[in-house]
Design brief:
Strand 8, helix 13 and strand 9 form a beta-alpha-beta unit. The protein is α/β, with parallel strands linked by helices and about 450 residues long. Helices cover about 40% and strands about 10% of the residues. The termini are far apart. The chain has a 9-stranded mixed beta sheet, with helices on both faces. The protein folds into 2 domains: about 300 residues, Rossmann fold (3-Layer(aba) Sandwich), CATH 3.40.50.1820; about 140 residues, no CATH class.
Length: about 450
């Protein structure tokens, strides 16, 4: 079916009562690029929110990643390949790609087909996730047929995966790109070497203020490790420790004076809202453990040596008691090679980011802009910003306006501007989200990341 047009492929696929055996599966990319046979996709009831009348299939690919495919009844020939956020830790779960399709079911309601992988490995491994993303695209082509256009969509950590995939699957010998355009939403776009520095900062500031992660009676360890492999600490126990120290889960009036002061110090120095404190500490614990022990053989990619932290009641006293670390060059180089984008993307790229995003700081967009410039791709980048505090999902109108603007550009139309995307959203709003306002801010420019996270 790979040679069929998208319309012919759709008619053929929909006419079959049984699911096709993937004869082309041996061509799909396996783990680490190896060739392996894929399992057969199965027809399934579509997850909640998917356009009525859609055809959905799911399965597990040759590397072990669960995936979902969805084709709406009014498919316009455009495929959206989704790279999800996170990343998840542990073994792959079948529920993850189903939940992603529900969250991003707007693509099917807007007439686009969807393909999404749950990734065959848990943890912070960007290139592997990029390979999984490309594999699910090829699965779609083998099963449904070649779309007329393909957009790679990355959300949160998945935006870094999508940026990497766009670089890795650049034109082959036939001169064609695997993807015609790239949409990055709420992106963690500084790569591992810049995006995660503030979480090391959080660990050292929190420990200086609270001293209970680890507790004094527990074995000590360098905080860049996240957590020793033999630790039995649970997320519930960590949340209790954070609450004991800061009262973060209590109402402000229920906190002691000491808790209020400790909480203020931590969130003011790090520059995060109270509501995200426990989440960021979780990531700076178990995700750091995954990075260090599962990806880098125990090496340290993080540094805060020479950083002077500001924002407390007594900065000199705070800085004098902090733990200090210097990265190991080999570990940092390996982490950078896997997670850092290069900016060498040969197709149009459009980003959407909330100005008040509490998880992926909007200042990461300034890093990505510099990266695209260094990679020679700045003319292929448009960045848009919204007056949003949501990280996981803003609203349908934002994303559909961005997607339609991107597709017009990729098909030879004018390069969009933040103002033109905002105007398009306003035109869509009465149809898609009559109760909500479009919140694009065309004049916004993010500050350098160093204004939010101390440079090192």
């Amino acid at each position: 079916m790979q040679g069929l047009s998208w319309r012919a492929g759709l008619r053929f696929a929909l006419s079959r009562k049984a699911v096709l055996t993937l004869a082309a599966a041996w061509l799909l990319i396996g783990a680490h690029g190896a060739m392996a046979q894929s399992t057969k996709p199965a027809l399934a009831d579509c997850p909640q929110g998917v356009a009525a009348g859609s055809r959905c299939l799911n399965g597990r690919d040759s590397a072990g990643a669960y995936y979902w495919l969805a084709v709406p009844p009014d498919w316009n020939g455009v495929l959206v390949v989704h790279a999800h956020g996170g990343p998840e830790l542990g073994e792959p779960k079948a529920q993850r790609p189903a939940a992603d399709l529900t969250r991003w079911s707007v693509w099917t309601r807007a007439g686009y087909a969807y393909a999404g992988s749950g990734f065959h490995r848990g943890g912070v491994e960007v290139r592997s996730a990029a390979e999984d993303t490309e594999r699910v695209r090829q699965l779609f082509v083998a099963e449904i047929g070649a779309p007329k256009m393909t957009v790679l969509h990355g959300q949160s950590w998945g935006a870094g995966v999508a940026a990497k995939a766009a670089e890795m699957f650049a034109p082959g010998v036939d001169g064609k790109h695997a993807y015609d355009a790239v949409l990055l939403t709420s992106g963690v776009l500084g790569g591992g070497t810049q995006s995660y520095n503030f979480r090391l900062d959080l660990r050292v500031i929190y420990q200086a203020v609270c001293g209970n992660h680890p507790k004094p009676e527990e074995p000590g360890y360098p905080l860049w490790q996240g957590l020793p492999l033999d630790s039995k600490l649970t997320r519930a126990e960590l949340a209790t420790r954070v609450d004991d120290c800061t009262g973060v889960r209590k109402k402000p009036e229920q906190r002691s004076a000491e808790q209020r002061q400790r909480l203020k110090t931590v969130v003011d120095v790090i520059g995060i809202p109270e509501s995200s404190l426990i989440g960021h500490l979780n990531w700076a614990t178990w995700h750091f453990q995954d990075i260090v022990f599962k990806r880098l053989s125990g090496g340290n990619p993080f540094s805060n040596d020479g950083v002077f932290y500001l924002g407390s009641a007594d900065d000199a006293a705070l800085n004098a008691q902090l733990a200090r670390y210097r990265f190991e060059p080999q570990a940092r180089a390996a982490f950078s090679a896997d997670t850092d984008p290069t900016g060498r993307i040969g197709v149009p790229v459009l980003t959407v980011h909330g100005i008040h995003d509490p998880i992926a700081f909007v200042e990461l967009e300034s890093v990505f802009r510099d990266t695209m410039q260094q990679g020679g791709s700045l003319d292929r980048l448009v960045q848009t910003f919204t007056e949003d505090r949501d990280h996981s999902y803003q609203n349908d109108a934002h994303y559909v306006a961005a997607m339609r603007s991107l597709l017009d550009w990729a098909q030879g139309g004018s390069k969009p501007t933040p103002a033109s995307v905002a105007a398009r959203c306003q035109a869509l709003e009465p149809v898609l989200e009559p109760a909500r306002n479009c919140r694009f801010v065309p004049g916004f420019t993010p500050q350098p990341l160093s204004t939010r996270v101390p440079a090192r």
